[in-house]
Specification:
This protein has about 100 residues and is an alpha+beta fold. The protein contains three helices and six strands, in the order H-E-E-E-E-H-E-H-E.
Amino acid sequence: MTLDAEDSKLVTLARAARARNGSAEGAAVRDETGRTYSATNVALPALTLTAVQVAVAMAVSSGAQSLEVAALVTAGDPSEDDGRLVASLGAKELIVAGPDGTVR
């Protein structure tokens, strides 16, 4: 799959967040105005969130009304809930890539 420059940027942002925090997952989303948000998963005893959930929450709490696209970088499989979450906000797709940035 070949990504356009803006979607490739999301994968890069997700990879960077994942690497910076040493997390299992990194995600990035782009809202309807073109703003981007990147995040990693949260794994605390009292709170567990996927990277996509955190990135979406950041976007929505910053005023985003919808999403254009989302990207997830993980060695594992994406959660079906993540796909439904981004679709519920209008995202055209959830791009999934491995830690090396290769889109699956």
